[in-house]
Amino acid sequence: MKSMLRVILSKNVSFSRINIIRFASNDTQKQEQDQKAEEIVKNITIEKYGGITTLNIDRQKSRNSLDEATLREMTAAINAFDKDAEAKVLVFNGEGGTFCSGFDLDDMGAKGYNTLRDAASRLLRRPLCDKPTIAAVTGYAVAEGFELSLACDLRIIEDTAVVGCLGRRFGVPQSIYGARRLTSLIGLSRALDLLMTGRLITGTEAHAMGLSCKLTSTGTALGEAVKLAKSLVKFPQNALIMDKLAAVNSQLNPNSEESMREEAIIASLLGGAIQDMDEGVKKFQTGIGKHGKFYRLTEVPLKDWELEETYEEVTVQTDKEEKKP
Fold first, then answer.
1. Residue 43: is it exposed, middle or buried by C-beta count within 10 angstroms (0-12/13-18/19+)?
2. What is the CA radius of gyration of the chain?
3. How far apart are CA 87 and CA 51, in angstroms?
């Protein structure tokens, strides 16, 4: 994937690779010869190509889920991007074919929901950054991973990607303003469908809803996102950022007493939601609801009329299939 990026970046405009910054976190400690040694786990990598910065989530064993350490590394990386006068566009990517599977529920079970949400507080900014941000959505982008993609200004999505509010099954609410952002992008009716049912949709369906600016084939989202970034860095940035902020603020930052009251009401529901999340985490840790299954989430015997319900699998319909009579 990285070699492909070098080929893309070498065309049309000359970009030199400046630096690779690796943010590491101390994940575990082990004792050797009566001394504690820290095991360094690289959760994200940052790469710079001229004015383009890529933030790559690299926790492939957990489908790029976000634990506290990863969220704090992302915060440091985003803040560094904001302060870098040479940086123009930030591209979010997930290594290993998955964008991001949301909060790490094992970490949530150990530390609590509030710990992870506090670590993710930087992602609550509306907009995420003043400068342009792009999400290269591949594989699964679910729960807070879906919200992270929504927090970006633009999304390039692969046709086989799978997105949705997967936290619904475990009682986890939208944690980084995903409900507001989703509604502003696709409208209330469609947003409520995805938010309330938690159903998963493919990249093809997401694009049809208006969630992405470009639909692309499997394995090409990052390359297409970088191409898009290249087209943005050549413009004068002040006017571009002004127009972006005007558009985002008109949708996501209504400054009124009524809006603030609504935020207070939503916050008052968090205590009960945390109790639901505790039960959801226990289900996850016992295997119920894992592996993309969204049915029979409890061990309670189903009634006869419930047995008639079916599970609709996520499928991708090709153009050739659509043309068949």
1. buried
2. 21
3. 4
Q: Please tell me whether the peptide bond between 254 and the residue prior to it is cis, using omega within 30 degrees of 0.
A: no
204: Cβ contacts below 8 Å, ≥ 6 apart: 159, 215, 316, 317
Full-model pTM: 0.72
CB 252 within 8 A of CB 177: yes
Return the amino acid letter for 306. E
Structure tokens at 130: 């003043």
Closest CA to 183 of 147, 215, 159: 147
Question: What are 289's two structure tokens?
Answer: 């609801």
Q: Indicate the SS3 state at residue 156.
A: strand
Residue 259 has which token pair? Answer: 């809006």
The tokens describing 226, both together, are 């970088």
Identify the helix (H) or strand (E) that includes residue 22.
strand 17-32
Per-residue model confidence as pLDDT tens digits over 235-276? 989 989 989 888 888 887 655 555 555 556 566 767 777 777
Residue of 238, 229, 263, 268 whose CA lies nearest to 90: 229
Give which of 156, 226, 221, 220 is closest to 6, Cα–Cα. Answer: 226
Residue pair 147/181 in contact (Cβ under 8 Å)? The answer is yes
